[in-house]
Structure formats: C-alpha cells, structure tokens
Amino acid sequence: MESMIFEELQNAVIEGDSEKSVSLAKNALEAGIPPLDVITNGLAKGVKTVGDLFSEGQVFLVELILAGDAMKAGMSVLLPVIKESKAEMISAGKVMIGTVQGDIHSIGKDIVGTLLEADGFEVLNVGEDVQSETFMEKVKEHKPDVLGLSSLLTVTMPAQKDVIEKLKASGLRGDVKVIVGGAPTTQEWADEIGADGWAGDAVSAVSLVKQLIKG
Ligand code: B12
After folding, report:
1. Smaller CB count within 10 Å for the chain: N or C?
2. What 3-state DSSP class applies to 103?
3. How far apart are the CA of 215 and the centre of ligand 1, in A?
4. Alpha-carbon torsion 75, 76, 82, 87, what sign?
5. What is the pTM of this model?
6. Nearest ligand 1 atom to alpha carbon 152
C-alpha cells in the first residue's frame, strides 16, 4: 500500500502533475503515512529522478520546472501537517535559513525550516537568492542563534563562503553559528569554509542545530 502511494507520488512529480501530487499527498495522509516519509520516499525521489534525467540531457528545463512545481504542490499539503504535529510553545532557539545569492532552489531549505519549526525552533525563512549583504543585515536585526545557508548549485557554493567571510569582517561571526547544506555540499566543504556544521538531510539538520545550540 505505502510503496504503491510512494511510486504514484514519484510518477506525479516526474510527470510534473501538480494536481495529482496534491491529491496523492492527501491520500497518503489519510492512509496514515507520516508526512516526512511521504516527502522523502515519494516526492523527493521523483524530483531526484527528474534531476538525473536533466543532467543526462534526457529531459529539458521545462520538465525540471514542472517537477519542481509538482514537488512544491505536494509539500503544500504535507509541510503544514508536520508543523502542526509537534508545535511547542517555548522556543528552543532562533534559526535563520535562506538560499544564497544566485540560487533559487527552495524545496530542501523549506523542508529543513519546517522540521526545525516542528521541533520548537523559531524559524526565520528569508527566502532564496539572498545577497550576502542581506544576510548580514538580517543577522544584525534578528540575532539568530544559528544561520543556515542552502546552495544547490556548484556555482553558488562560494556564496556560502562569502557570507561567512562577511560575518567575520563585520565582527558578527562570534554571535552566530553557521551551518551549510544543499545537495552539492559536503562536510569537507563546510570545514574548508569555516562553517560550524553541515547536514545532508533535514532530519540530521535538526540534530545538528540542537547540538550547536546546546554547545
Ligand atoms: C527542482 C529543481 C529545480 C527547480 C527548483 C524549484 C524550487 N522552487 O526549488 C528549478 C526548475 C527552478 C531549477 C532550476 C535550475 N536548476 Co535545478 N534542480 C532541481 C532538482 C531536480 C531537485 C532539487 C530539490 O528540490 N531536491 C529535493 C530536496 C528535498 O533536496 P535538497 O534540495 O538536496 O535538500 C535536502 C538536503 O540537501 C538538505 N539541505 C538543503 N538545504 C539545506 C540547508 C542547510 C542549512 C542544511 C543544514 C541542509 C540543507 O536538506 C534537504 C532536505 O532533506 C535538482 C536535482 C538534485 N538531484 O538535487 C536540480 C539541480 C540542483 N539543478 C540544476 C541546475 C543546473 C539548474 C539550473 C541552472 C537549470 C538551468 N539551466 O536553468 C537552474 C538554476 C536556477 C537558479 N539560479 O537557481 C543542477 C545543478 C548542477 C550543479 N552541480 O550545479 C541539478 C543538480 C540537476 C542536475 N543533475 O543537473 N532546479
């Protein structure tokens, strides 16, 4: 049953069918499947398939865009349920999260943000294609405990480093822990640019933030 719904969800994303993605996500919830499993085993696998086909030149940009839209459509059903499921009254800490300059990929970052919220963190999602200077201003203004920088393109990874350098230059680096993530990033990259941590998925991102705030 579960595996059939996951496969159907993958196909809905591969076909770029947002309506189907929404109705299948609802069906999955009704069937009692945990929303994060629906994202991980259904939607995200579909979008990964399309990404692979795109890099092999087997599908075009339009299919990539439609797949992204279908993933987001399904997530619009699932993320609110995750958020509501655990909402706590006392904030466990403040996390600012955004995608770096030149990069408009939002999906992974939004999942990380929602999972953190579900775990009781106050999350400020500052969006995509965020300039390093804007991160500086927002860090000064909101004073988050942790700043999460997402990058999905190898060409935008250097912008993560740029934010860290700018935080250092403006004397703010000591006030905020910086974590990085996104498919092309690695722990080695995080170490190289002087980030405080790296996580490869949203569940590990939550553990990482907890660890950093405790420490
Ligand atoms: C969907 C998608 C798009 C959509 C994005 C829609 C949206 N609103 O986000 C659209 C169509 C807009 C798009 C555009 C482009 N894309 Co694109 N895209 C993808 C795709 C298929 C899926 C990305 C995704 O959402 N994955 C699902 C989520 C759940 O995974 P995730 O993002 O990795 O996030 C998880 C972890 O990484 C981690 N995480 C993420 N962020 C953070 C942050 C922190 C702080 C932490 C701790 C953890 C963390 O937790 C998340 C949850 O588990 C990938 C393929 C892939 N395999 O990644 C290509 C991919 C990233 N895109 C690619 C490319 C080339 C492009 C374009 C340049 C295409 C073009 N020619 O125009 C443009 C760039 C636009 C821009 N300037 O940003 C390449 C990048 C190649 C490279 N190495 O640089 C990829 C890898 C496809 C490929 N195989 O060629 N894309």
Report:
1. C
2. coil
3. 31
4. positive
5. 0.94
6. 61
